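Need residues for this backbone.
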């Protein structure tokens, strides 16, 4: 069982910046996938940024150049810096992880944190 605890988020005007962090109960290096998804009002949950086993970070096209995921994979916390935020970025942001145990993948989600971008 992996626990994910998020912090950060809040309200910001368009063009502003916010940061999120997610602390896992295990080292990030022990996880197959780690990152963030978001779910806007009336939308399905969508990928924002994830780091896979090859340590390459993949971003959704809608956030490329504005969002940056960082952190030390040997540790247990990763960060998502969100710059030049747009009203369309308003959503609940969820930390996400996949742990491979044997031949099975186990999915874990954080509790979610609200990000609101409005004037």
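Answer:
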């Amino acid at each position: 069982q992996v626990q994910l605890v998020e912090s950060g988020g809040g309200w910001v005007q368009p063009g502003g910046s916010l940061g999120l962090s997610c602390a896992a109960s295990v080292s990030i290096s022990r996880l197959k996938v780690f990152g963030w998804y978001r779910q806007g009002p009336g939308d399905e949950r969508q990928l924002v940024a994830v780091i896979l086993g090859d340590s390459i970070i993949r971003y959704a096209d809608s956030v490329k150049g504005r969002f940056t995921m960082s952190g030390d994979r040997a540790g247990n916390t990763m960060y998502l810096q969100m710059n030049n935020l747009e009203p369309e970025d308003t959503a609940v942001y969820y930390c996400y992880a996949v742990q491979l145990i044997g031949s099975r993948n186990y999915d874990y989600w954080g509790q979610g944190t609200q990000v609101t971008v409005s004037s």
